[in-house]
Design goal:
The protein has 397 residues and is mainly alpha-helical. The protein has one domain. Helix content is 54%, strand content 4%. It contains 18 helices and 4 strands. It has helices at residues 15-20, 22-35, 41-44, 49-58, 76-84, 94-115, 121-131, 136-146, 163-174, 212-234, 240-243, 249-262, 268-285, 290-300, 305-316, 326-339, 357-366, 387-395; strands at residues 2-3, 181-186, 193-196, 201-205. A 4-stranded mixed beta sheet has the order 1-2-4-3, covered by helices on one side. A hairpin with a 4-residue loop joins β3 (193-196) and β4. α2 (22-35) runs parallel beside α6 (94-115), α10 crosses α12 (249-262) and α13 packs antiparallel against α14.
Length: 397
């Protein structure tokens, strides 16, 4: 399925800009050709999620799942060689040169992650290099959120919509933008929905039931941020905006959850879900296997088995993926940025990071980067009505 609308993603480099930065554009173009297939989410989700869930439940939660993964369709060793063969020293500007050097190391780390998926501790240690692990402060923040008493379910929290109805909702939400993206259904993803940046595709979990609140959450999270930054990145002269700055997950996921908050659909339930993900990621550090992480969530924290399985899966896929702890840390950083009355538009210019805002500003002044084409409409005004959520966000460490 394709949500077909016109798109403006056909920017050409101004001739004067190319001539004044020939080595930069050559390296940026070379890297673009090399990293198109380096999208971890394309490989990290097991292809036998549902079967292994049935087996795990049938074993009374005692036999760890045996996840299988799709095969890598590129030569990892050759890709490493080509990345490090780039003549980074030919970039004249020192700050830009250092940035692209970080890009190469970051993508090399992601390649190592992909080539060790399903190889236990090898993958886990590569995951640590790329995504880090929860600190004690992160764990304390998660437990702080979890100590708040659950709110009563209202009508919007009941899962009543199927994937087809969800697709129709997202099609309606997307009408405010003049970009188009593919939509497909899958039983091989761990989340209810995800964006594939390199193919501009929104993937929906085929057998999932969505609540009205979750539809709002996913629309503002996946389309309002992840699709918006995908298409803004495509509109940039430098392709690294689309492929992704080094260590961009924290900022991108922080923006996406902040979009939920600003649009008024972030709930305590959702914040607790993100907190359980932090605890699941932390359980990897303590050497927990899948069954032990599931036991922590299901028996100690009383999560229902479907949710406990889903969060355990997210943490243990590949051999131990620590990425999920970055949603809460990212949310707090973006929230603080907003509270300081700082503009969020530059953070929507592509798959960028808070830490690299100075170089984005520098590139915009030099004509190497463009202003955003697509905004996040939720950022225009704060629609959060919950004093409790405001208190929580203000008091996270």
């Amino acid at each position: 399925m394709l949500f077909t609308v016109s798109t403006r993603c056909s920017m050409r480099y101004p001739e004067t800009i190319i001539n004044s930065h020939p080595n930069l554009f050559k390296i940026d173009t070379n890297l673009n050709k090399l990293v198109k297939r380096i999208e971890l989410l394309n490989y990290i989700n097991p292809i036998n999620i549902e079967q292994e869930k049935r087996n795990f439940f049938a074993s009374k939660y005692n036999i760890n799942p045996n996840f299988k993964y799709r095969k890598i369709d590129f030569n990892a060793h050759k890709l490493h060689q080509e990345l490090f063969s780039q003549d980074i020293d030919s970039i004249k500007d020192e700050e830009t040169r250092a940035f692209y050097r970080d890009v190469i190391y970051d993508y090399s780390g992601l390649i190592e992650c992909i080539e060790t998926i399903g190889k236990g501790s090898k993958f886990y240690f590569n995951s640590l290099k790329s995504f880090g692990t929860p600190t004690q402060k992160d764990v304390d923040n998660a437990k702080f959120i979890l100590h708040f008493e659950d709110e009563e379910y209202d009508q919007e929290m009941f899962p009543v919509f199927n994937a087809q109805e969800a697709a129709e909702y997202f099609a309606e939400f997307t009408k405010k933008y003049d970009f188009s993206f593919n939509l497909k259904y899958s039983t091989k993803i761990s989340a209810a929905a995800m964006v594939q940046n390199n193919t501009q595709t929104l993937v929906l979990k085929k057998n999932h039931r969505f609540s009205a609140n979750q539809l709002k959450v996913l629309a503002n999270h996946e389309i309002g941020v992840h699709m918006v930054t995908t298409f803004n990145g495509l509109n940039q002269t430098l392709k690294i905006f689309h492929n992704g700055f080094p260590k961009n997950v924290e900022t991108q996921e922080g923006l996406a959850v902040f979009s939920e908050y600003m649009s008024g659909c972030l709930t305590l339930y959702r914040l607790k879900e993100l907190s359980y993900r932090v605890l699941a990621a932390d359980s990897l550090r303590m050497g927990f296997d899948f069954a032990a992480t599931f036991d922590l969530l299901h028996n100690q924290y009383k999560l229902n088995r479907e949710e406990a399985y889903s969060i355990s899966l997210r943490a243990h896929r590949g051999g131990g993926l620590t990425k999920d702890h970055l949603y809460l840390t990212g949310l707090k950083k973006i929230y603080n940025h907003y509270q300081e009355d700082k503009n969020l538009d530059r953070l929507l210019t592509g798959k960028v990071t808070l830490e690299h805002l100075p170089i984005i500003s520098k590139w915009q002044e030099e004509g190497l980067a463009n202003e955003i084409v697509y905004p996040n409409y939720a950022f225009e005004s704060n629609s959060n009505k919950s004093d409790k959520l405001e208190f929580i966000l203000q008091n996270l460490k």
